[in-house]
Specification:
The protein is α/β, with parallel strands linked by helices. It has 10 helices and 14 strands. The longest helix is centred in the N-terminal third of the chain and has 20 residues. The chain starts with 15 loop residues before the first strand and ends with a helix.
């Protein structure tokens, strides 16, 4: 072989990354993107909500409940993870108020993971937190310095995990990034269908595709422009991008991930009708325990630290979700 014909093929994986919750909505999209970037990915999921069909074939899968300390420890024995991205959690605000016991598992799971991060000297942790840690906004948009007084059990658990992460990671010099997502929506090319809809977009799609009769808007007497709750919907592709960028951030940070654009639930229904060109039957129901009138992010910190910016509009989130459901329910021949 002469020198000119020698072209080294570099086929190394950049990092060994563990993604918990990698069979779920955000996790499966993130795993796909990490594998496309040539990382080696391990996934831990108990499949309580996630589905095998959304697991990436190139990811090494461990079906484990993070609450099971012994089994979890076993998953770390033959792997040397460089980073852990912890998404696995139960995520329904409504359910957390009705069944708070179940939501203690989110904290136990994170504590078990933190013990192993410490034991195996893992260098980096990225954690999926939520806007629900803030509680009722004292001003809007919410920046990361806003007080944290969650008004639901789900948010209280996430805040407890944030505090435990800071304590353990600072003690052990583990870099950590806490991403407080606002309301995640859209599809990342997996045609993801929520198996047990708790969020607004999948519930809307259930109505559009005839799986439920009408959409319920919980509360129309909030002090907002049309009486319904205002939320900040952020596209799943923008969320995935924030994680990829977080891998390269060397300082410890807590960052909001949202668009900074608030839209009311009623406005969302009207936008969906316009984009999908179909009437969506809806009714107003009573307020739900644990819901804030308004949650809108200031995203200045993520923009400054990671050079991240949201790119997708609300109409594009509606369209990609609609197409995902359409592709699953009416696949083309
Ligand atoms: N979707 C959103 O709008 C949103 C907003 C803010 C924060 N988050 C957070 O982002 C993360 C991912 O959310 P998602 O929308 O992909 O939810 P999801 O329910 O689709 O995915 C969560 C995954 O975690 C798994 N899981 C749950 N508990 C587990 C346990 N004890 N052990 C192992 N696996 C477990 C589930 O089977 C599921 O596959 C969650 O932590 C959620 O709280 C989501």
């Amino acid at each position: 072989m002469n020198d000119k014909s020698f072209k080294p093929i570099i086929l190394f994986a950049l990092m060994e990354i563990l993604v918990t919750g990698g069979a779920g909505y955000i996790g499966s999209a993130l795993v796909k993107s990490l594998i496309e970037k040539k990382h080696n990915v391990g996934v831990i999921d108990n499949l309580s909500k996630g589905k095998k069909e959304y697991l990436h074939p190139k990811a090494k899968f461990y079906r484990t409940d993070l609450v099971d300390k012994k089994e979890l420890a076993g998953n770390f024995k033959n792997s040397k993870f460089d980073a852990v991205i912890h998404l696995a959690a139960y995520k329904s605000v409504e359910e957390s108020m009705k069944n708070p016991e179940k939501y203690k598992d989110n904290v136990v799971a994170a504590n078990n993971l933190l013990e192993l991060i410490e034991k195996h000297a893992i260098k980096k942790l990225i954690f999926s937190s939520t806007a629900a840690v803030y509680g009722t906004p004292q001003y809007s948009p919410l920046d990361e310095n806003h007080s944290t007084k969650p008004i639901n059990v789900y948010g209280q658990g996430k805040l407890e995990v944030e505090k435990n992460i800071m304590k353990v990671c600072e003690k052990n010099s583990v870099d950590y990034i806490i991403l407080r997502y606002f309301n995640v929506a859209g599809d990342a090319g997996l045609n993801y269908i929520d198996p047990a809809p708790e969020n607004v977009f999948p519930k809307l799609m259930d109505v559009v595709f005839g799986k439920r009769r009408e959409f319920t808007i919980f509360g129309n007497d909030y002090k907002t422009r049309d009486g319904t709750c205002i939320r900040d919907y952020i596209d799943i592709n923008d969320i995935v991008k924030a994680h990829i960028l977080s891998l390269d951030v060397n300082s410890n940070n807590i960052m909001n991930i949202g668009t900074s654009n608030g839209i009311s639930v009623l406005e969302l229904v009207k936008s969906a009708e316009k984009v999908i060109e179909k009437k969506i039957p809806f009714k107003f129901g009573p307020r739900r325990a644990g819901d804030c009138p308004e949650l809108v992010a200031s995203n200045q910190l993520a923009k400054r630290i990671m050079k991240w910016k949201p790119e997708k509009s609300i109409d594009s989130m509606i369209l990609s979700t609609y197409n995902a459901y359409k592709n699953r329910y009416n696949p083309r021949p």
